[in-house]
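Message: A physicist's question: would you kindly supply an amino acid chain plus fold tokens?
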Amino acid sequence: MHLRHLSLTDFRGFSRLDLDIPREIFLLVGENAQGKTAILEAIYFLSTLTSFHAGSDRELINFSSPVNKLAVCRIVGEFQRQEGKHTIEARLIREPNGDNGRSRFRKEVLVDGVKRKLNEVVGFFNAVIFLPQMARIIEEGPSERRRYLDMLISQVSSQYVKHLSEYGQTLLQRNALLKQLAERGGEREQLAVWDGMLARHGAIIMQERIRTIREIEEEAKRLHYDLTHGNEVLRLDYQPAYDPLEKHDGQMTLDVSTIADRSGFSQDDIEKGLLIAFKRLQHVEIARGVTTIGPHRDELRFLSNQVDLGNYGSRGQGRTALLAMKMAEVNWLHKRTGDWPVLLLDEMLSELDIQRRRDLLASISECDQAILTSADLSMFGPKFLANHTVWRVAGGIVDKVRQ
């Protein structure tokens, strides 16, 4: 898979941009705040229909657009898959809502000119992105890691997107009922319907997470081992809020250095276990007015040589682990979809020593298409620069510097 053409209208700082994208590894260079990252963000948006960088999709609309008038941000990508050429278009629409100064916002997506539901389109075009801000995946709270995992799996499974959405809606309804039971009382049997729905969707989500983490770890561990010259071993520790391996009285706990294997549990096993857990915790959850167990509270930890990188790792170690994860995503998406994703790397070489820079650049050499950004070309060796196209981005304008 490769992107052939990108068109932006009123996206971020771009009023209008049209680019023919080469099928190769090439560089976007320029000072900060010139639009390099925005181009990568737009390409990635076509894959997930959400931004990893922005707090809200509203922020993607050109800041110069008057807030009290209709504003339409358009991101259009023409790309090639194995079976043929396609066009995907995302529209972010902000329209005035009466005279109160507020506005309504909606998102539309078209594939080959036909409007489609969002959950049908996620993953139709595949991309992997690395931004320096993604250090928060390792450094911040579990919600960042769940979001990362969900965005990754969504690229290969529209059913996962569907069940994730339905799980969230069911969770809201169940929590509302729990609060009602706590404040006004009532029949606890009412929870049975929501328990069943939450367990069904939750089991599907958990099983896909278990599978994905196991597969991604296999790829990432090998790549990370190479990037660290055999000095570090990367492991992914999935810590589900409901654990089908949960110990009972008389059972031994796993050694702290052991990563639990939950791949042997079927969807039915997990669903039944969740139902039992909901029943066991019913009294506590009614008292608290919130669902305390399920995939909405799952955790994922990154370990290097059994050291938790979120708690004890250096910035360089965290950066190296994330880069290994991103390269693993490329291989994983290729295996799951049959197409190579577009690789997007923003300022990837900062905070890496010279040897790790060389190793990383060598590791991306087999990519079908990769776009790298940097404010400093001196980070790239002369041989790499001599063999790759360089474009300069300045003030929202993109010019080819060297072929």
Observations:
- Residues 248-256 have pLDDT under 50 and may be disordered.
- The longest helix spans residues 191-227.
- The first strand starts at residue 2 and ends at 11.
